[in-house]
Amino acid sequence: MKIGYKTLNEYKEEPHPWEPFIPKNADKIILGTFPTTENNRGAYEFFYPNPRNEFWKLIFKVDNKNLADYLNEEPIKIRHKILTNLKLGIADIGRRVLRQKGSSKDQNLFPIEYTNIFALLDNYPKMKRIIITSSSGENNVLSWFHHYCELNNHPFRIPKGNLPKGTILTFKNRNIEIDIISSPSRLSPIKGDKLNAMYRNAILKD
Question: Crossing angle, helix 192-204 and helix 55-62, to 10 degrees?
Answer without folding.
Answer: 60
